[in-house]
Amino acid sequence: EIVLTQSPDFQSVTPKEKVTITCRASQSIGTNLHWYQQKPGQSPKLLIKSASQSFSGVPSRFSGSGSGTDFTLTINSLEAEDAATYYCHQSSSFPTFGQGTRLEIK
Amino acid sequence: EVQLVESGGGLVQPGRSLRLSCTASGFTFGDYAMSWFRQAPGKGLEWVGFIRSKAYGGTTEYAASVKGRFTISRDDSKSIAYLQMNSLKTEDTAVYYCTRGAAAGRAYWGQGTLVTVSS
Q1: What average pLDDT does chain B have?
Q2: DSSP string, B40-74
């Protein structure tokens, strides 16, 4: 099983700040890494697919990068509506997820 | 518009069975694999399993935590995927989601259905 480790687990940030969330895989997964946003009581929403491809309709302030074992989700100019938990997910083998990063807006 | 609607959740005693349904619309259901995920209360996301399309044999794969207890099937004529859950344990308590596809980023998720396993 491929283990994904996200950091940080929690971050409290102010609006307009830039946020970086990292996801490290226990073995190389190429670019088979995807990012989701989940708000309480809602299903996950795909933000970034294949490490760096923005999904349709996702605001341009969300971007992804990385390959192999190290990946990053960046949120530029954070907005209040970005308060959520963010998960990375690998599809290189049977799916696994990171433990999640909860983002709180101050 | 792609829509996925899960149903069949509820309260069930340990050791009993439950069958969830995922009703799809807005796409040619038979052309796609279908997957199930779950999320225990306050916890992260966990893959449960998937079923391939008939073109790829309609075969299934499962997470180790449910293998031998859960079975995924599909009825392409009704555009429904099923998750048959037997020998339920308290640790199976979760919101269960279905998604379209079995690889890459999952763009389409249902709203989820809550399964509570408790005596």
Answers
A1: 97
A2: -TTS-EEEEEEE--GGGTT-EEE-TTTTTTEEEEE
Kindly list the residues from chain A whose CB atom is less than 8 angstroms away from the CB atom of residue B112. Answer: 43
Per-residue pLDDT tens digits for A45-83: 999 999 999 999 999 999 999 999 999 999 999 999 999
CA dist B33 and B49 (Å) reads 11
Structure tokens at A81: 């509506």
pLDDT tens digits for range B90-115: 999 999 999 998 888 888 999 999 99
Neighbours of B55 (CB within 10 A): 10
B35–A100 C-beta distance less than 8 A = no
Interface probe for B, chosen from A5, A9, A23, A43 (most Cβ of B below 10 Å), is A43
Partner B contacted by A5 (CB < 8 A): no
CB-based contact A63:A74 (threshold 8 Å): yes
Is A50 close to B63, i.e. CB distance below 8 A? no
**Helix, strand or coil for residue B113?**
strand
- Which ranges of chain B have pLDDT less than 50? none
Residue B5 carries which side chain, given as an amino acid letter?
V
Chain B contacts to A (CB-CB under 8 A):
35, 37, 44-47, 61, 63, 97, 103-107, 109-112
